[in-house]
Design brief:
The complex is a heterodimer. Helix content of chain A is 72%, strand content 5%. Chain A is mainly alpha-helical. In chain A, a hairpin with a 3-residue loop joins strand 1 (54-61) and strand 2. Chain B contains eleven helices and one strand, in the order ααβααααααααα. Helix content of chain B is 71%, strand content 1%. Chain B is mostly helical. Chain B is globular, with a radius of gyration of 19 Å. Classes of the chains: A mainly alpha, B mainly alpha. Strand 3 of chain A pairs parallel with strand 1 of chain B.
Chain lengths: 675, 301
Amino acid sequence: MVFVTAFVVTLIFAIVLLPFFNVKGRSVLFFSVVLLNAVLSSYFSIQTLLGQTFEVILPGSFVTGPIALRMDALSGWFMLIINLVFITGAFYGLYYLKAYQERRNRITLHGIAFIILHSSLLSLCVIQNSIAFLIAWEIMALSAFTLVIFESDKISVIKAGINYLIQSHVAIVFLMLGFIWVSIKTGSYDFNAFTAFTESSNSADSLVLFLFFFVGFAIKAGFVPFHTWLPYAHPAAPAHISGIMSGVIIKIGIFGILRMVTIIHTNYITIGYLILTISIVSSLYGVMLAIVQHNLKRLLAFHSIENIGIIGIGISLGCIGLGNGNPFLSSLGFAGALLHTLNHALFKSLLFYTAGNVYQATHILNVEQLGGLIKKMPQTSILFLIAAIAICGIPPFNGFVSEFIIYSGLYHWLQNAVLTWLIVIIFSILALVMVGGLAMLCFTKAFGIVFLGTPRHEIHNEVKEAPFVQLIPLYIIAAFIVFIGLFPKLFLTLLEKPAGLLSGNQFFTILTFQGKAMNALQPIGWAAMGLFALILFVLLVRRIVQRKAKIEVAPTWGCGYVAPTAKLQYTASSFVRSYGKLFGAIILWFKKEKEVEGIFPTDGHYESHTYDRLEQWIIDKPIMVYKSFMGRFLFLQNGKLQYYILYGIVFIVSIICIPLFYEKLVIIIDFLKQL
Amino acid sequence: MLSLLLILVAALFFTGIIIRTKSLASGRKGPGIIQPIKDVIRLFKKGSVYSQTTSIIFQIAPTIYFASVVMAMLVIPFGQSKGIISFNGDFIFFAYVLALGKFFSIISALDTGSSFEGMGASREALYSMFAEPAFFILMGSLALLTGYTSFHEIFAALHVGSYISYAITVLATFVLVMVAMIENSRMPIDDPKTHLELTMVHEVMILDNSGFDLGLILTAGFMKFAIYGALVVNLFIGMVRYEYAIPMFFAIQFLMAVSIGLIESFMARFRMSHNAQFIVALTSVSLLIFFAVLLILGKFA
């Protein structure tokens, strides 16, 4: 109770005080508030991971009823992820926003929204009262909107922001419908009512209820086909906000789905299959579109969709395990999903921060115009490389560990499945492998084109590495990425409680994890260390051998051609061209070309860009139809004030009169019915 | 431990045998069987030339490629004896650690800023992506058949019994050989002896490597062959005792090297644009294996 008050008081104080400080004081206050919030909540989170639970019932108001705040291991795990990303994001953001220092007011607003977003995300993890949850959700959506539109004088930013705002409100509608349904049936806003309600109602009802929540949360999480806001919002936001959005905000959707799995009792197998299908589609579709993107941040945004899909595969395995009464499968699935949530938060925020460094140094995000940055920005490049390897799920980093757990789940399920399931499993494995391979294609392209080779575009300002202080949070994240790769078992021990909570096995101990597939994690750690040792050893040998040898520097071999220019290099488009030809059916390509022809040839040009086919079907076409329908009523909007006043009067009169004439109307309708 | 030694010995001769077979098939006498090893040793002693465009990535990539292949080699078992690293799901580690090497060889090709090497890099990235599903489905089918999920346990439990399992072994051998060909950029996919940079895959990626680094890459290539050969051997020697298994190991490795030599002598490389289709067809072969396993286990009933 005291802590809840402290939490709220800190928040209010910070918001009120922030505008009154000078630049330095503001930064200090801002960061210390984020740190304070994080430390306070992490203290409790760690305790929940060790097996404690906390419950505080606030009196609330007559609208909300008593507001229950409950903290279990699931909330604890997500709160730790949120805190980690927010601390690094806040620190990075302080330096990232230095370039915008003269926009004092905007930065103040940004800081306030940042603190509110942090608090609202933390509170979403603990609030277990429908109305309070929705309010916190709305605060979260609005503060995130404020953060995204930081550079609001750019049209594209405003457009992306509004797109995000609308879609997150569509999400809220679905959540609201679900909450209203339960509260009408049970008369309570407490989440505990869900369990009671779904246990007593028939399975179809609880399935539909789950679907409402799933759609609501899936829009936030960015599952295909609810993903269309994501590739716009991420690139529009400043780098630290993109990192936070991808690392944490979309994860709150995952949190919501997992929370609903714990409190809604329904047919888990059906849900599992549904989530599995959507997740596989999301992961494949996300990475397929990511490959053809030219905007670095947009590329990363599509990868978020892919990773959400991988997390979803884990969740679906967990659900199917729950439904089959196979606690081992379900704990593997949920553990994989939870660990991948952390891992993705780490490497994706690192990728966005490094992309932010690139943008700061070059003011370019189009990969086709970048190149050779590793010579100017070696630290940023290596950090990006670490994150890129991790996101492809390649050992020795963390991405491999969580994907390995999910693979183990799939191969474990394979052992005792019937025919239809076997087919599903084998195609899931196929999809997961394809996703891994495609991710590699995508990140070799992103890293190779942006950081390697020679610059493809003349940059007029001096390109230089970000100051070391700005890189500190990035190094911290990279250290986590390496650490999880080297000591996966430690993190699995931390996951024991949350995974146990989800798989319904409260007596879940580390012993369950030491089952067949899980004693693999220790050797993975050893293998990762062995790999590092081996690499260092070979490098050492190479060093010793090469000390005597003659080392020369010469131009790149060009088949005898001695005057190559930067334009002769492979570009991002050419790197993925054969891929694009193979997958042309899935991606929408637009080409504009003018060939060079005639005896005295004029300029030719060629231009191609891609578009999301699903977005065209799901968003653009319905909006077009809607617009053309609404266009018929355009005569009402004629711009004349007198008419608008008339509309107002008509509205008010009808509001007043309809109840008066209601009985008369009923009589008339009855009369009509009798006819 | 045993498997490591055997693979290393096989790696010494594998490429030499391929080259010798090819020269015999084309009516030449050809170099000695350990000539490739001599070449590599000479490379290790030589100095190197580095492109001025390259960065640290180009310096460390061959090392990491080599290390990844060595790591992959450590998980391969030999019949009843485990690999040095063995755990449940180690074949996932095997495939992914090889991917680490590929990742680095691709970005090191892009590091040179060359117009050719990017081409090879792009192809390598695409083909290896298509080859991996076949391997994973094959291992999944074997895992389903035997009920285990580590290389060692799967191969130790695998024994050839009925006609269908003969078919499975034949198909699995085919898939593994083909994956080996793709991984090593050999004939139907890529011609290592082609003279035109535009038509190369792997060779064009290492155009700028020289000296010690090139030696590492070539050595890794030899080992990769022996690794896949060892996987094929493992399909057959699950229950066989060592005194028979070890000669069998060398016999099969020899046979594989000879047949690769013959394939390379009498087949033309596929058109680049058809490679992807071919590799996807490989996935359907491994799906066939999967269905055969279902048939054996009576899952269709």
